[in-house]
């Protein structure tokens, strides 16, 4: 059936795109799904070559906003597919204008090839990075040097190695770090101090879980009188409020396996 991906997408102001490498009998086939705010408008499993061509045609549509580009699936042909996409982007002088990128794979790790593709995202459009897979050490060390990482405001990341440094996350405004290695009191304090900074807007938060928190060690770092707010759960061991300008509060909640912090007016924190 003949179709025009440009005509399919053109009526919409924004779309979401999912690219999934498929475990099919014919190698180098990929599933492309395009979603509007109301539902799926296109879905097809076909050759990597045609998927790449359609992606380029989508990126050529003026003013089309890509809410999220999701890339995942099985990875037997992942390197070749990424190379094909990167080559097409470079040949057509295109950047991926997506607000959020979501990398996930089912049986391997995020590699330097993912980082190479990340460098082809428009830094002015990209606000969120989501990584739902293990990240190799060398890939992580390269990823944090990219302008895309440095300018993004939202991060969700799973399955950490032990080579991460908390300094790599201090600029994000909304942070989920899941299965994080044991976090030191000093690293907890660095995150708290970063969120007390006026450059981090109200509504921001960080949530570091699947870790081990030295609760007493963190409390010893506080530079305000220690006062535990009313606890709303038996799992939270300490809730500290840090007063900020204009009646804003940074709430820090300490658990044995998690540290959670939220920034806002006291009444607004109940809505988080």
Automatic annotation (TrEMBL):
A Pfam family per the record: FTH
Domain named DUF38: residues: 80-195
Domain of life: Eukaryota
Protein name: FTH domain-containing protein
Organism: Caenorhabditis tropicalis
């Amino acid at each position: 059936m003949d179709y025009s991906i440009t005509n399919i997408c053109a009526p919409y102001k924004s779309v979401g795109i999912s690219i999934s490498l498929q475990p099919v009998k014919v190698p180098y086939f990929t599933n492309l799904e395009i979603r509007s705010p109301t539902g799926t408008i296109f879905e097809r499993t076909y050759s990597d070559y045609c998927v790449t061509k359609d992606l380029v045609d989508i990126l050529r549509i003026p003013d089309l906003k890509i809410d999220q580009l999701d890339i995942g699936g099985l990875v037997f042909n992942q390197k070749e597919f990424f190379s094909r996409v990167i080559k097409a982007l470079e040949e057509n002088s295109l950047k991926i204008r997506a607000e959020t990128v979501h990398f996930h794979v089912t049986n391997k790790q995020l590699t330097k090839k993912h980082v190479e593709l990340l460098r082809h995202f428009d830094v002015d459009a990209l606000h969120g990075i989501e990584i739902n897979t293990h990240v190799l050490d060398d890939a992580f060390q390269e990823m944090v040097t990219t302008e895309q990482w440095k300018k993004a405001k939202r991060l969700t990341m799973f399955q950490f190695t032990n080579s991460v440094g908390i300094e790599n996350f201090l600029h994000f405004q909304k942070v989920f770090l899941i299965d994080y290695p044991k976090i030191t009191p000093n690293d907890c304090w660095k995150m708290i101090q970063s969120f007390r900074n006026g450059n981090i807007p109200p509504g921001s938060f960080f949530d570091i879980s699947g870790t081990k928190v030295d609760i007493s060690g963190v409390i010893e770092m506080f530079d305000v009188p220690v006062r535990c707010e009313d606890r709303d759960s038996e799992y939270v061991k300490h809730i500290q409020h840090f007063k900020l300008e204009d009646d804003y509060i940074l709430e820090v909640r300490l658990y044995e396996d998690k540290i959670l912090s939220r920034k806002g007016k006291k009444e607004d924190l109940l809505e988080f």
